[in-house]
Amino acid sequence: MSEPATDAPLILFMGDPHGDFSATLAAVHAHRPAAIVLLGDIQARRPLEVELASILDLTEVWFIHGNHDTDSDLYHDNLFGSTLAGRNLHGRVVEVAGVRIAGVGGVFRGQVWMPPEHWRYLTPKAFASHCGQGNLWRGGLPRKHRSTLFPSDLAELFGSRADILVTHEAPSCHPHGFAVLDELAASLGVSRSFHGHHHDCRDYRLHSRRLGFRAYGVGLRGVMDDQGRVLVAGALD
């Protein structure tokens, strides 16, 4: 087994695996980071701790969920029912390898909230009460909407402080991004943000001054370090 590089990055950010963890595993073995963050659409076919068993003794594993992580009972349970479920960064700020990271998993959906339009339902409870008993899943939100963003999800973070914001959706510098995530990043006082979802790795440098932070999109199964350097190009980059 090779020795870790002396300039090993503290944290690696992983683009949407969609069930293929080969790049994630290889990057951890090669770079030995203190922690990794999966940026959603994990779609684990086995419990996440089983998929990542070979690296659990080498690094801390953290994640946010994506829209496809609620596509089936299997994907949902292998993530949210895994022994790593407590490593979900969604809706909170956690100190990871000495860095404060705020997380926002999931996506905006028009049935609930599609910024900049006004929200229809403030909380999951409010939406569930309008779904009808036959549409509920395991006594609560329909499974699909377990990955829907509600205003209350972001409200939990406004007023907190963080160094990095990780999201599944993109901020406004992406053609399909959202200004409300810019506002959240500004409120948190972050210097960097990382997102997945769009499977691309665009150059956002021209937007940095307007945004007030450096934004990075990590491509499909790509790997980026905590300074925004691409270690493994995304499959579609």
Write up what this structure looks like.
This protein is α/β, with parallel strands linked by helices and 237 residues long. It has a single domain, classed as Purple Acid Phosphatase, chain A, domain 2, CATH 3.60.21.10. Helices cover 19% and strands 17% of the residues. The chain has seven helices and ten strands. The chain has helices at residues 22-31, 48-51, 73-80, 124-128, 151-155, 179-188, 208-211; strands at 11-14, 35-38, 60-63, 93-96, 99-104, 164-167, 192-195, 214-217, 223-225, 230-232. The strands form two sheets. A five-stranded mixed β-sheet has the order 3-2-1-9-10, covered by helices on one side. Helix 1 links the parallel strand 1 (11-14) and strand 2. The longest helix has 10 residues, at 22-31. Residues 1-6 have low confidence and may be disordered. Residues 11-200 form the Calcineurin-like phosphoesterase domain. It holds the Pfam family Metallophos. This is Calcineurin-like phosphoesterase. It comes from Pseudomonas cuatrocienegasensis.
Query: Mind telling me the CATH superfamily name?
Result: Metallo-dependent phosphatases
State the secondary-structure class: alpha/beta
Estimate what percentage of residues fall within beta strands.
15-25%
Which regions contain 5 or more consecutive residues with pLDDT less than 50?
1-6
Key phrases:
alpha/beta; Calcineurin-like phosphoesterase; Calcineurin-like_PHP; 237 residues; disordered N terminus; five-stranded mixed beta sheet; 17% strand; Metallo-depent_PP-like; Purple Acid Phosphatase, chain A, domain 2
